[in-house]
Backbone:
């Protein structure tokens, strides 16, 4: 904690936000959205130039039922509730979700013996439709599974979702409700004052009467800046392969291993964009920036894939990526409010935060209210945003004749692998939270996400990004929020 007297002076000044949420991943965005639905001034402060650019952009994108969570934990409760909340919100906003279901496969006698316990645990977690099935039924459901499966457990409600659209929808909603989204503001120090806490960021100070720490992999660092010493984040890397769309007929549901104490294990799953995914690995690292893939990770995945589904290995890999789970040394979420310091920590949201994000926000709401924050709902809430569909199972603009007739830009394909149109790129550039670079544009449209990885369309997509939104498309849109907007 710094003791800069001028900052401490400002900490008592009236220019502070009521609440500053640090971290614009899925969790911070969900919290900011919830709080901004009340008569409060809210800021969402993010180190990177885009929302959802940390762990929330690189996961397996499964909307978990929570069937395998440890009953009685906060995580199990919030995953279950998050599943309900996000399913409803996705329907409202157009976040693509496919309820493909999962099949958990036992490969050893020990795993087979574990199935009844897992079914009972699932029932305790509210998943009462799970059924133990024979090896024959396993192969009927997934004919291309490798040899040696002994039985399985069905999890009918497990779903796949677009993780990119989820964070973007929540952050867009938060912004529409009046929250300031302050990108490129890395918090590097903290000064506490009598009425507010000043966060010193790489783009100037941001003061809040209440601070919510949703900084993911950086949550322990910020917690220490605030004078606590209660946990350490260990980045647990998960590497994944994305197979070409031609592999999609091999896998119509999520195929899971029996989970172990190390996590959920390596799965094969369809993706919401029409590909197939294999992964993730689980490797504890020291480096919180190590999101690159590795030779060892690839060898491990190839070995697993060969046993799980040999035919999949004959297919082409379109892309590989890795994400870092914010693992901590306890088996549950660490969410604690300190009423005296007007501070709330959201830590250890390791491998279920995409699903649980909205329920974490609801829980945080309750804790803040209990700690003394007045939460009076606003009467004039804007409607939730309607997000562009980038899911393969739903109508895309290039398929929509009426839309193209109204606006021919939706008929002009720019990215042929993923069939992304000029209209979609234009809309993304003109959206309330426009992309800061090519990767952000990819997450909003799928442009350059296909088998050529931008070889054909990269130059045109880059030119369109550089040209920015056409003036008419961005008219009326407030300028990008920067330090100058921060009070
Ligand atoms: C391989 C893998 C697979 C997974 N699969 C699933 C899944 O299938 N389903 C599921 O529900 N969950 C899954 N998860 C977990 C899920 O992705 C995470 O729990 C979730 O994304 C965490 O969101 P977050 O907002 O807490 O963190 P993040 O998305 O990392 O956001 C934290 C943000 O805080 C910012 N920040 C950090 N420090 C500072 C600072 N000092 N100042 C300002 N900003 C700061 C970061 O830049 C970052 O943007 C998976 C995770 C991994 C890695």
Residues:
């Amino acid at each position: 904690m710094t003791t800069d007297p001028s900052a401490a002076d400002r900490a008592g000044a009236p220019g502070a936000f009521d609440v500053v949420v640090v971290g614009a991943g899925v969790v911070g965005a969900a919290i900011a959205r919830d709080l901004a639905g009340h008569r409060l001034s809210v800021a969402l402060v993010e180190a990177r130039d885009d929302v959802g650019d940390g762990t929330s952009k690189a996961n397996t994108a499964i909307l978990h039922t929570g069937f395998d969570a440890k009953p009685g934990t906060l995580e199990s409760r919030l995953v279950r509730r998050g599943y309900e909340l996000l399913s409803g919100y996705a329907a409202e906003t157009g976040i693509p979700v496919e309820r493909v279901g999962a099949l958990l496969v036992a490969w050893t006698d020990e795993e087979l013996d574990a199935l009844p316990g897992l079914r009972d645990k699932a029932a305790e977690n509210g998943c009462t439709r799970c059924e133990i099935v024979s090896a024959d039924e396993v192969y009927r459901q997934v004919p291309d599974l490798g040899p040696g499966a002994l039985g399985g457990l069905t999890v009918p409600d497990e779903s796949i979702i677009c993780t990119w659209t989820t964070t973007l929808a929540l952050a867009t909603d938060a912004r529409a409700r009046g929250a300031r989204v302050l990108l490129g503001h890395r918090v590097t120090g903290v000064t506490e004052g009598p009425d507010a806490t000043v966060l010193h960021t790489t783009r100037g100070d941001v003061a809040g009467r209440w601070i919510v720490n949703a900084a993911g992999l950086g949550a322990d660092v910020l917690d220490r800046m605030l004078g606590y010493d209660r946990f350490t984040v260990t980045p647990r890397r998960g590497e994944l392969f994305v197979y070409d769309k031609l592999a999609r007929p091999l896998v119509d549901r999520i195929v899971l291993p029996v989970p172990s104490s190390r996590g959920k294990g390596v799965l094969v799953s369809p993706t919401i964009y029409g590909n197939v995914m294999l992964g993730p690995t689980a490797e504890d690292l020291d480096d919180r920036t190590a999101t690159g893939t590795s030779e060892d990770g690839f060898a491990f995945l190839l070995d697993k894939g060969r046993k799980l589904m040999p035919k999949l290995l004959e297919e082409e890999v379109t892309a590989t990526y890795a994400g870092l789970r914010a693992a901590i040394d306890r088996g549950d979420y660490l969410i604690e409010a300190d009423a005296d310091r007007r501070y709330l920590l959201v830590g250890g949201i390791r491998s279920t935060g995409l699903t649980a994000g909205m329920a974490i926000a609801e829980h945080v709401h309750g804790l803040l209210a209990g700690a003394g924050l007045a939460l009076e709902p606003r009467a004039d809430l804007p409607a939730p945003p309607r997000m562009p569909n980038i899911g393969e199972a739903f109508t895309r603009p290039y398929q929509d004749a009426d839309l193209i007739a109204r606006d021919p830009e939706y008929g002009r394909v720019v990215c042929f692998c993923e069939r992304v149109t000029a209209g979609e790129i234009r809309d993304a550039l003109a959206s309330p939270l426009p992309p800061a670079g090519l990767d952000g544009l990819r997450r909003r449209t799928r442009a350059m996400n296909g088998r050529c990885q931008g070889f054909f369309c990269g130059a045109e997509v880059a030119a369109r990004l550089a040209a920015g939104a056409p003036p008419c498309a961005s008219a009326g849109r407030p300028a990008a929020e920067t330090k100058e907007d921060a009070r």
Observations:
- Residues 98-159+237-326 form a domain with the D-Amino Acid Oxidase; Chain A, domain 2 fold (CATH 3.30.9.10).
- The chain has a mean pLDDT of 93.
- The longest strand covers residues 317-327.
- Residues 22-28, 45-48, 53-56, 59-62, 64, 186-187, 214-218, 222, 238, 280, 323-325, 349, 351-355 surround flavin-adenine dinucleotide (CB under 6 Å).
